[in-house]
Specification:
The protein contains 6 helices and 20 strands. Strand 14 (243-249) and strand 15 (254-260) form a beta hairpin. It has helices spanning 22-25, 63-75, 77-83, 108-113, 145-153, 218-224; strands at residues 9-10, 12-20, 37-43, 52-53, 89-96, 102-104, 122-129, 134-139, 161-165, 171-174, 180-182, 186-193, 199-202, 243-249, 254-260, 264-267, 275-288, 291-296, 300-303, 309-324. Strands 14, 15, 16, 17, 18, 19 and 20 form a 7-stranded antiparallel beta sheet that branches. It starts with 8 loop residues before the first strand and ends with a strand. The longest helix is centred in the first third of the chain and has 13 residues, at 63-75. With 326 residues, it is mostly beta strands. The chain folds into 2 domains: 9-224, Jelly Rolls, CATH 2.60.120.10; 243-324, Jelly Rolls, CATH 2.60.120.10.
């Protein structure tokens, strides 16, 4: 039987009313005929939008087909026991040229209750931010359900939302239930649970070319919102040169950053999980079993659990996001 290897996938591009040109112009990805590409899905096990292998002898297979066939060898035994044949992480790049809707996602418990798969906890790593770019993360004051509904009905919801200024390399962890929205001028990597469930709360009174507004999910969102207040929104981390630094450690995914200008060996032998590597700055090569994959910005690979060691060679320097389930 042929051995598994690091997988590349054909990206899935998404036209969005709020999308822009950065995915094409900054990342140099071929978005096709989409005038406003808002998202590119780089690794996806979402059933109706799977990514397809585009390298090696398994070219043409969907990601979840690989999971079904190779099980723990691909994703790790404990990951397979937990998630079955669904690859549990979705990796995107988002270009927000306008405000996204103010929205919220359900947690696993509510998603199960509504029979919609998994919840959606996510994180953002900001790749580029225009001057004065901002986003919404949670509330700017303690809010209960009654107060939230009053501000929503009075069309002054913005008054209780927390607006954050955003810079390159900022990180935001958005747990399921946290109200949020991306603002204009942001290009970011999103790591999330495999889910495509979003409840729109407010869409800035926006209409499409036909004068139609997008659906809102007022009642669905009300049960999903977590009203616990916090004034801490950005995730603090300290990059370590030529080493691995933890950014987010949650039950849904762990995300690290590898910042290096000299060769690094990674030992994944004790992990019992797949590893996703996403290039966010510079270039490098990944070596395993005397084979190589070249990586540039936005390139993303899935390292199967069965591969215990890889070597990373910068060209001449590189930053990678490293994602797995611990």
């Amino acid at each position: 039987m042929k051995s598994l290897y690091p997988f590349r996938f054909t990206p899935v591009f998404k036209e969005k009313i709020w999308g822009g040109q950065k995915i094409k112009e900054m990342l140099h990805l071929e978005v096709g005929e989409l005038p406003n590409c808002g998202e590119v899905w780089l690794v996806s096990g979402v059933s109706d939008n799977p990514t397809i292998v585009n390298n090696g002898y398994l070219v043409g297979n969907e990601l979840n087909e690989l999971v079904e066939v190779f099980m723990g060898d691909l994703v790790g035994d404990k990951v397979y026991d937990r998630f079955g044949d669904v690859f549990p992480i979705l990796i995107k790049i988002i270009d927000s040229n306008d405000w996204l809707s103010v929205q919220v996602h359900p947690d696993d418990e509510l998603a199960a209750k509504r029979n919609i798969g998994y919840g959606k906890t996510e994180m953002w790593y900001v790749l580029q931010a225009d001057q004065n770019a901002e986003l919404i993360s949670g509330f700017n004051q303690p809010v209960n359900q009654e107060k939230y509904v009053k501000y929503l009905n009075d069309k002054i919801l913005k008054d209780i939302l927390n607006f954050e200024k955003v810079d390159q390399n900022d990180v935001f962890f958005i747990h399921a239930g946290k109200i949020h929205a991306l603002g204009p001028g942001l290009l970011l990597a999103e790591i999330q649970q495999t889910s495509d469930t979003t409840y729109r709360v407010y869409d800035w009174d926006r209409v499409d070319n036909n004068g139609k507004s997008r659906d809102l999910h007022t009642e669905e969102a009300l049960e999903a919102i977590d009203f616990e207040y916090t004034d801490k929104h950005k995730t603090k981390f300290t990059p370590k040169k030529n080493g691995t630094s933890e950014i987010v450690d949650s039950e849904f995914f762990t995300t690290n950053i590898i910042d290096f200008d000299q060769a690094i060996r990674k030992d994944y032998g004790e992990l019992d999980s797949f590893v996703i590597l996403m290039c966010i700055e510079g270039k490098c090569q990944i070596k395993w079993d005397d084979q190589f994959i070249d990586m540039k910005v936005a390139d993303t690979v899935v390292i199967p659990n069965i591969i215990e060691n890889i070597d990373l060679y910068p060209d001449p320097k590189c930053k990678l996001l490293e994602v797995y389930i611990s």
